[in-house]
Prior knowledge:
By secondary structure, chain A is an alpha/beta fold.
Amino acid sequence: xxxxxxxxxxxxxxxxxxxxxxxxxxxxxxxxxxxxxxxxxxxxxxxxxxxxxxxxxxxxxxxxxxxxxxxxxxxxxxxxxxxxxxxxxxxxxxxxxxxxxxxxxxxxxxxxxxxxxxxxxxxxxxxxxxxxxxxxxxxxxxx
Amino acid sequence: xxxxxxxxxxxxxxxxxxxxxxxxxxxxxxxxxxxxxxxxxxxxxxxxxxxxxxxxxxxxxxxxxxxxxxxxxxxxxxxxxxxxxxxxxxxxxxxxxxxxxxxxxxxxxxxxxxxxxxxxxxxxxxxxxxxxxxxxxxxxxxxxxxxxxxxxxxxxxxxxxxxxxxxxxxxxxxxxxxxxxxxxxxxxxxxxxxxxxxxxxxxxxxxxxxxxxxxxxxxxxxxxxxxxxxxxxxxxxxxxxxxxxxxxxxxxxxxxxxxxxxxxxxxxxxxxxxxxxxxxxxxxxxxxxxxxxxxxxxxxxxxxxxxxxxxxxxxx
Lengths: 143, 316
Ligand code: SF4
């Protein structure tokens, strides 16, 4: 593991984008910052601007209103940047699968690196997801 | 030849010790203390000690630096450099004068006051250059904040100047304190130290005065368009300021850094005292609005500063 991977995996600035979620996922994300789970231990911080971010965390089912905005925000992220699809909605539209308003799942709009399943995901699942992302960054750099 | 030697000496002082390298390393370490203490106050574990180094390394080495379309590149990318250069200069001047009080020049205190304001001004200009509406909102808040804290800041700076027999050389203030005991012991010095503590809280952009970069309302405000290297340099400048400003206070009120073994430990304790005071203020107060900050600094704080000046004039 070189310096680059170490630096990228140990200091993850996350930008939270809600693309029409039912708000449960967003609350669960805040749970991860509480004393019980404390994501800052691993260097994960929430940032206010996409320009500072290393990871775009997308909650919600990517409805039609949000689609162009998601694309735009993805393009505004400085690379290398990763995308985390959060919750059943983010991964596959979840229970909004047949809705007129969600025509495409998130991973057909932008490339997704990790999926964190659950409706909403438990904080433990989130920690596991972060681990998955770290593994992915490491294996990506080997290629 | 002597010219060359002098230039080399200054370059070493500025770039390596106690300038850029040393100050930024210390600043990043202090940033970690801040994060760790905050985490402990909130009953969390907090990040490991090298966290801030990794953050800055990542931004400086591996992240893309984006420049928004139609933005003056020189201005947008030059301002972080200005901020860092002046922050480094501040810490170099303060530390060198602490080591060798005779090395200062007449009016170095005034120069320091201007240099201490430079990072905020650079941030403001950079934010205006980025043409983002939220950034210009943040910049205008930063400007108002500066207007509000500079008044009590300069007023309370008058106290050390008066106490050292109206000298605007940092060296004289140090020598005077070495002979007559540190300023914090006198009533006027204590009050002006307290005022100063509140002012630097705003100067460093700590909560409750982080109005210009309020993450939750204007999304990092003035920093919003900065990414990669530019953001990393701003972070470094801020780290250097967090290191230099408490030292500035120690120089003015505690008689400077002492280099005897016992004195050095005392200095470190004073530094930690100031730092922890700042962190506790930061963690126990919610962010204020800009008008509240203005009222606060021009009202009670400025009055306190005037009081300390009056006391110093009367000789207390
Ligand atoms: S995954 Fe479940 S909890 Fe999360 S936004 Fe969708 S419906 Fe809500």
